[in-house]
Amino acid sequence: METLDILIVGAGPIGLACGLAAKKAGLSYTIVEKGCLTNSLYNYPLYMTFFSTSERLEIGGIPFVSISAKPVRPEALEYYRRVTISNHLNVRLFEAVEEILPDGQQYTVKTERTSYTAKHVIIATGFYDIPNMLYIPGENLPKVNHYYKDPHFYAAQKVIVIGANNSSVDAALETYRKGAQVTMVIREEGIGKRVKYWVKPDIENRISEGSIKAYYHSHVQAIRENEVDILTPEGLITIENDFVLALTGYQPNFSFLEKAGIHLSKDGKKYPSYNPDTMETNMPGIYLAGVVCGGMDTHVWFIENSREHADKIIAHIVAK
After folding, report:
1. Residues paired with residue 181 on neighbouring β-strands, in sequence order
2. Which fold has domain 3-130+250-319?
3. CB contact at 8 A, 158 and 242
4. What are the protein's GO molecular function terms (predicted)?
5. Helix axis angle, 13-24 to 73-86, nearest 10°
């Protein structure tokens, strides 16, 4: 079996950026992805608009041209797909990595299909696969979703949206405009400060006029087939409900990182151990790239500020 210079885990934008940088440096590499190409972006809401401008989502110095200043999900999917195909990146899709095992001065990477041998491994797996659970009765009912895709599905339904950041606000506005009766349940005192600046006034106005009901300093206590209990500052209330969108955020696959030998901080943030100058972890030859570097602080790293990880990693590998 050929020993690769680099095995890249994850074919999201940053994993692809690592592949482009590796190819440019003349290194042998393979990108392995458990789902489809840019799997996380594919699973974003259908009508999502990025916060960043198109040029800040570019990878490998390849121009990203969008119709508007801020691209939408289909444009991003098209861009990263064309980047992958036109550059003939070596990508293996729908192949989950199961283990990364030290093997002398290199690593054996076992997937559900085969095994690879590589001198270096880059983990660029993002954080979108594991939702932050509520741990309340009824959370596992079919009516509860931790992901939101298309507002039409919720037309003429009573919908509770849990959370007050971008995904929650988008879901509340879009389902409301498709005819849903929307109630937001928010732990904090108001809409999140990181909500897109052109959306924040919209949701606040809809709440002020009563089109969308919002309970602040509140949380859902229990979910049943046709109703939900909400603990508010005024006490416990029960409202009729058809669907719950528990958009409470997501987290990296920490068990996968620990299984690979990467140390995580013990402060609850679970920051992985790595050198910010090289992105190399405490495991020699294993690197982190992209939002996976942020632990539970998933709002720290984005495409625009982590695409530089690719160049840092490849420069360090070449220098060896």
Report:
1. 158
2. FAD/NAD(P)-binding domain (3.50.50)
3. yes
4. oxidoreductase activity
5. 20
In which band, very low, low, confident or very high, does the pLDDT at 300 lie, cut at 50, 70 and 90? Answer: confident
Q: Cβ contacts of residue 85 below 8 Å, gap of 6+?
A: none
Count H helices and E strands in the chain, helices first. 8, 17
* DSSP code string of 235-281: EEEEEE-SEEEE---EE--HHHHHHTT--B-SSSS-PBPB-TTT-BB
Assign domain 133-246 to its CATH superfamily. FAD/NAD(P)-binding domain (3.50.50.60)
Q: Are 124 and 12 in contact (CB under 8 A)?
A: yes
DSSP for residue 88:
T
State the pTM of this model.
Answer: 0.91
In this structure, what DSSP letter does residue 95 have?
-
Q: How far apart are CA 4 and CA 255, in angstroms?
A: 25
Query: What is the 8-class DSSP label of residue 31?
Result: E
User: Nearest to residue 79, comparing CAs of 89, 88, 90, 66?
Assistant: 66
User: Do 3-130+250-319 and 133-246 show the same overall fold?
Assistant: yes
Give pLDDT, residue 35.
96
Q: Which residue ranges make up each domain of the chain?
A: 3-130+250-319, 133-246
Contact of 260 with 254, CB cutoff 8 Å: no
Q: Are 12 and 32 in contact (CB under 8 A)?
A: no
Mean pLDDT of 183-200: 94
Predicted local confidence at residue 132, as pLDDT: 93
**H or E stretch including 3?**
strand 3-9
Rounded Cα distance, 71 and 41, in Å: 12
DSSP 156: T
pLDDT of residue 127: 87
Q: What is the pLDDT of residues 211-244, one digit of tens each?
A: 999 999 999 999 999 999 999 999 999 999 999 9
- Chain CA centroid to CA 244, Å: 20
